[in-house]
Design a protein that fits this description.
About 20% of the residues lie in helices and about 35% in strands. By secondary structure, the protein is an alpha+beta fold. Helix 1 crosses helix 2. The structure holds zinc ion.
Length: about 240
């Protein structure tokens, strides 16, 4: 069946009864529980078994009474577990993915039920495509709310991470080479065979290495033994 991909904010009454697909995070996943979809009621007067399709979470008895033609009594009935059809259900909240800037975004969620074989397929906090029938349940005080009876859970393929380095940025190896060159120049110009850190920072900044990165690189080079600090303000190359 063709399912309509919808965002929770776009759900409308015209979608009730339709198969919809919603992308969202799985939250508040509950413990699974059994639900009757077809309940077998045995008439205690004649023994006949009437089957009643159940579409909600409240058990409905045969409302026209015993289906046995000559009986037709309104009960009492006994629910026969073995003759009934029971499925597993798990409560879950689907939380809409946030794509808009936070201040423009109102969190949207929909109460949902993982039905039958989809029980256990969703992990808390993970994002999935949930497909199922959009319906409503009584939210009390005469209000209804939308619910999704999920019959399909699909993993969302993780998008390949966007390379974080800009094409113009230097590789670490290039940065270290630049650092070494600058330290040598500053050191050679000093006449005292050591480089002022301030001058090194200034020089490498012109080469595109910011102060914080330069500090980290110097720290690494010291750890490797390529540099020593002669005092708090100067460094010397060990090569
Ligand atoms: Zn009967």
């Amino acid at each position: 069946m063709e399912s309509l991909e919808l965002q929770i904010k776009d759900i409308r009454s015209e979608h009730i009864g339709e198969q919809v697909k919603i992308k969202g995070r799985a939250l508040n996943i509950g413990t699974q529980y059994p639900v009757y979809t077809r309940a077998a009621y045995q008439c205690l007067r004649c023994g006949h078994i009437s089957y009643v399709e159940q579409d909600g979470f409240k058990l409905e008895e045969p409302y026209t009474g015993c289906e046995e033609e000559t009986c037709g009594k309104k009960g009492p009935f006994k629910l026969i577990l073995k003759e009934s059809t029971i499925i597993d259900v798990q409560n879950i909240i689907i939380l809409e993915e946030i794509t808009a800037p936070a201040r423009e975004c109102i969190l949207k969620s929909i109460k949902s039920f993982l039905m039958r074989s989809t029980v256990g397929l969703a992990l808390e906090g993970e994002t999935y495509y949930f497909t199922g029938k959009l319906s409503t349940i009584d939210a009390g005080k005469g209000k209804l709310e939308y619910v999704l009876y999920i019959d399909k859970v699909e993993n969302v393929l993780k998008e390949a991470p966007v390379p974080s380095s800009e094409p113009t940025s230097m590789s670490i190896r290039n940065r270290i080479r630049t650092m070494k060159d600058c330290i040598k120049k500053v050191s050679d110009n000093s006449g005292i065979n050591k480089a002022s850190l301030d001058e090194v920072y200034k020089m490498v900044e012109e080469e595109g290495i910011d102060r914080k990165t330069a500090e980290e690189l110097i720290k690494k080079m010291k750890q490797k033994g390529d540099l020593i600090a002669t005092d708090q303000l100067h460094i010397r190359s060990t090569h």
